[in-house]
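Lab manual, section 2.4: Encoding a predicted structure.

Procedure: take the sequence of the chain (144 residues), apply the prediction step described in section 2.3, and record the output as structure tokens. A sample record is shown.
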Amino acid sequence: MHAITQAVMRWQEATQAYDEAVGERAGLNIAERRALALLMEGAQPAGAIATATALTPAAVTALIDRLEKRDLVRRTRSAEDRRKVMVEGGDAARELAETYYGPVARAGAAMLDRYSDTELGVIERFVQDALALQEKELARLSGA
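Recorded output:
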């Protein structure tokens, strides 16, 4: 159990260090990186970006403006409600993701190919449980 705990801590630290290095190379601060990561899931309203980044609505508008000038995001209208503005990743964001995270994703897929379906099921359950635990503890710290 100790070895797993230590490995997970090192994994978290390595992931954070990698993301910070990407941010430095790409000229992105942590809020901008979090916003772009959220937008990789698809178009989002500004409010979702505010939640993900813990920024005020005015600060999110400024963040979106900065990213839009770099073609990292673009504003669009919601398909469901044309009055609602959505933000989606732009071409430069996809290029940035491919440059820095594409090789990691491909290497990770190759690594996972070495495991059996049973082992992958255990890994998936562990990751889902660890994520739920981390989100619960974050909510506790945030007073939510």
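Check your result against the sample. The two ends are 30 Å apart (CA to CA).
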